[in-house]
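Here we describe the complex-level prediction in full. Unlike the single-chain runs in Section 2.1, the four entities below were treated as one system.
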Amino acid sequence: MTQTAQQAHRLVSDGLAAVGARGYHYRALAWLDELGPTSQADLGRRSGIHLSDLVATINELADQQLVERTPDPADRRRNIITITPAGRRQLRRLEKQLTRVQDELLAALTPDERDQLTLLLRRVLDHHTDARPSTPLLPNA
Amino acid sequence: MTQTAQQAHRLVSDGLAAVGARGYHYRALAWLDELGPTSQADLGRRSGIHLSDLVATINELADQQLVERTPDPADRRRNIITITPAGRRQLRRLEKQLTRVQDELLAALTPDERDQLTLLLRRVLDHHTDARPSTPLLPNA
DNA sequence: AGTCTATCGTTCGCCTCCCTAACGTTAGAT
DNA sequence: ATCTAACGTTAGGGAGGCGAACGATAGACT
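The structure predicted for the assembly as a whole is:
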C-alpha cells in the first residue's frame, strides 16, 4: 500500500509540477473555490494545510494574481482570501491535469474495480477520520 | 487515495518513530537481512534508497551497532555492510510494530476486504512498475 | 476602565523522503 | 598508460508536514 501510495504521490506531484504548481496550491484553490472568500485560519482548518505553510502558499498564489488577500474590516486580525477569475481558470487546468494523472494511475483497472478500490479506501479513511478531528483534504471528499 | 495514503504514511512514520527509527532504517535492515552482506551501491539499488541518503542511514545504523561497515578487500572501492544480531533483533521489533500499524490502519476492513484491497493495489502498482526500472522498495514485495 | 484569554497571521526552525551535482578513490578495459 | 566507469561521500535543495513563539487584535469578565 505504501508503495502504491508513493507511485500515486509521484504521479500527482509530477503532474502538478508540469503546470508549475504544487499540492498546496491545488488544495488551497480548490477549497477557496468551494468556500468563497475565507480567512486564512479557516482555510487552513478546512484544507488541512498548516497555517505556517498557508502563509507561503497564499503569497505564491497572490504573486500570480490567482488569489487576493484583503484585510477584513470587521476583524482586523483577519485576512480575507478571495479566488480571482484567473485563479479559477488555473484551478480548472489543475483539475484537468489531475484527471489525466488519475487515469494514468488507474489504467490497469476496470471502472468497476476503480469503484471498488475507492470504496475500500474510503472505508479505511473514514474509520480513522472518525476518531480524529475529521478534516478532508479536498472539498469533494 | 492520496488521503488514505497520507493516513497510512503518518501511521507508519509514527509507529517507527515510537521505536526510534525511520523508514530508511527499516528498509535498509529488511533488505540487508534478505540479502546478507552487500555493498552500499547494491543495497541502494535494491532498496530504492538514494546512495547519498544511504550513507547517513548506514552511519546511523552503525552507530547503534545494528550494522557493520567493513571495507571489501577484493574491491577497495566497496564497503561491505553486514547486519548484526542486534540489527536482526531491531528488525524484528520494527516488523512487529509495523504489523500493529497495519492492523490499526485496516481495522475497518474484513480479512476478505483486505485481500481485495491489496490485490487491487498490486494490480495498479504492477502496471506501473512494469514500464519502469522495477525496484520493489521492500524485499517481500 | 482594566485584565485575561483566545484567535489570527507571521516567522523561524526542524523532520522525512526524494533527488542532483560534484569530487576523490579505485577497478577494469583499451 | 590512459580512459571510463563504478563506489562512497559531501553538500544542497524541493516538497510536505509539524511545533514554538510573537505581535496584534477581539471578546469576555470583573
